[in-house]
């Protein structure tokens, strides 16, 4: 059958994000394929499909969303059988509609069937993360505030999940425990106070490392500002309190709101003037975007 190659009108809104290097992606895709292939390979396909059989199919979106994860899907097919051709019709960041055709895949049928689930798992999950991020980014588009993710990522998937957040129009918070200081209430309690925690952190890390302090009240915020931290995490504050907090900061630190933020509540939070809003469920609970292989 003929394959449509035109890009749907809605997919013209693409967030341009540099792709992750293949050297980062290949170990992840390879490990996932090995998990699926086990000790004997695809015994179902190998028993039923003749080795010489060839096929042609399409990746198709079955619901609206934002595309992410094409490179991982392409790698899954290539690692199973280098003879499989993968021709992308869209790019990561494309706005999908139900029925949008994403790619054409053709080649040895056995390899296509073996790689299918791994490719779709990555594509559906990462497109789900990008779609969830876009739901917040779109809701606050009129404000200067940006949505950012957290370290609440699925084990082993942090780099690609954070990539999908960027594809969806969001920004990344720290990648791990080693690239920024985030002092929370437990750190403060064990250090014996806010000043002690901040001073110990500042003495221990290099001048390139930013220090963020979590605060729950305006009184704590006042102490944080006196200590000159780089970022304040305004945790679980309602919009009126957030607005007061932003006025208190007055540009002396980056402000970040957190706490049960949804597409419905995000605009009121962004309207307070905060610089960032941290949303953990973008990565730990994003719903898979339904994408399938259709003949």
Any key phrases for this structure?
six-stranded parallel beta sheet, elongated, 295 residues, four-stranded antiparallel beta sheet, 12 strands, 2 domains, TIM Barrel, Aldehyde Oxidoreductase, domain 3, 11 helices, disordered N terminus, alpha/beta, 41% helix
The gist of it:
This protein has 295 residues and is α/β, with parallel strands linked by helices.
Helical proportion? 40-55%
What is the molecular shape? Answer: elongated
Q: Termini, distance in Å? A: 8 Å
CATH topology of the largest domain: TIM Barrel
- H/I helix tally: 11
- What number is the mean pLDDT? 94
Strand order of the largest sheet: 6-11-10-9-8-7
Number of spatially distinct domains:
2
Counting DSSP E segments of at least 2 residues, the number of strands comes to 12
Rg for CA atoms: 23 Å
| Sheet with the most strands, sense and barrel status | 6 strands, parallel
* CATH architecture classification name of the largest domain: Alpha-Beta Barrel
Low-confidence stretches: 1-12
Q: What is the CATH superfamily label of the largest domain?
A: Aldolase class I
- Which class of secondary structure composition applies to the elements? alpha/beta
CATH class of the largest domain equals Alpha Beta
Order of helices and strands: HHEEHEEEHEHEHHEHEHEHEHE
């Amino acid at each position: 059958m003929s394959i449509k190659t035109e890009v749907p009108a809605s997919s013209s809104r693409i967030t341009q994000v540099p792709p992750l290097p293949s050297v980062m992606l290949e170990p992840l895709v390879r490990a996932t394929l090995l998990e699926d292939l086990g000790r004997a390979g695809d015994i179902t396909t190998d028993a039923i499909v003749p080795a010489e059989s060839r096929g042609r199919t399409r990746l198709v979106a079955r619901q609206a969303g934002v595309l992410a994860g094409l490179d991982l899907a392409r790698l899954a097919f290539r690692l199973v059988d280098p003879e499989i051709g993968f021709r992308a019709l869209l790019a990561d960041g494309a706005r999908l509609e139900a029925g949008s055709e994403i790619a054409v895949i053709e080649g040895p049928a056995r390899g296509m069937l073996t790689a299918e689930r791994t490719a779709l798992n990555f594509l559906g999950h990462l497109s789900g993360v990008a779609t969830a991020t876009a739901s917040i980014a779109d809701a606050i588009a009129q404000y200067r505030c940006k949505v950012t993710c957290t370290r609440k990522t699925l084990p082993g998937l942090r780099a690609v999940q954070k990539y999908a957040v960027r594809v969806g129009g969001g920004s990344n918070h720290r990648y791990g425990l080693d690239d920024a200081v985030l002092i929370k209430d437990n750190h403060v309690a064990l250090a014996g106070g806010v000043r002690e925690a901040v001073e110990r952190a500042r003495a221990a890390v290099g001048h390139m490392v930013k220090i963020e302090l979590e605060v729950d009240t305006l009184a704590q915020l006042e102490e944080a500002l006196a200590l000159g931290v780089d970022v304040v995490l305004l945790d679980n504050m309602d919009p009126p309190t957030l607005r007061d907090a932003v006025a208190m900061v007055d540009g002396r630190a980056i402000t970040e709101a957190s706490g049960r933020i949804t597409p419905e509540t995000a605009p009121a939070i962004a309207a307070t003037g905060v610089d960032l809003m941290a949303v953990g469920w973008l990565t730990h609970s994003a719903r898979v975007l339904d994408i399938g292989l259709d003949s």
